Amino acid sequence: MFTNTKRNDIISNLKNNKFDLLVIGGGITGAGIALDASTRGLNTAVLEMKDFAAGTSSRSTKLVHGGLRYLKQLDVKVVAEVGKERAIVYENGPHVTTPEWMLLPFHKAEPSAALPLRLACESMTF
Fold it and tell me: Which family is annotated (predicted)?
């Protein structure tokens, strides 16, 4: 249990024990990393500046995206990396990820963008 009344005990524990992994930040990413590491048997500690998960949900889109903006910039390497990371998330947490259909609007002055974007989206779907 994390409480400021046990702050000195927690600091002492951090000073006197060895950890395999020290996660800095108790937001959704840090908490996920800590959970994954601890379930793999690593002795894990998490440091958080304020309160765990304070404000993180309001700043997160909660989307696992495919990197379309990087594709538009022709940064294919980043798009491939994002795709690999997305596949890992689906594999490790299928119970917390749900594919969602999205509507992408096009400006009528750019109808030629529709086909390449559709092909890109289809290639990123698995």
Answer: Belongs to the FAD-dependent glycerol-3-phosphate dehydrogenase family.
Cβ atoms of residues 70 and 78 within 8 Å: yes
Contact 34, 44 (CB under 8 A): yes
Whether pTM > 0.70 for this model: the answer is no
Closest C-alpha to 92, from 125, 64, 120, 58: 64
Quote the mean pLDDT of the chain: 77
CB 124 within 8 A of CB 104: no
Domain co-membership, 49 together with 87: no
Cα separation values, 58 from 3, 26, 33, 61, 97, Å = 23, 15, 20, 8, 18
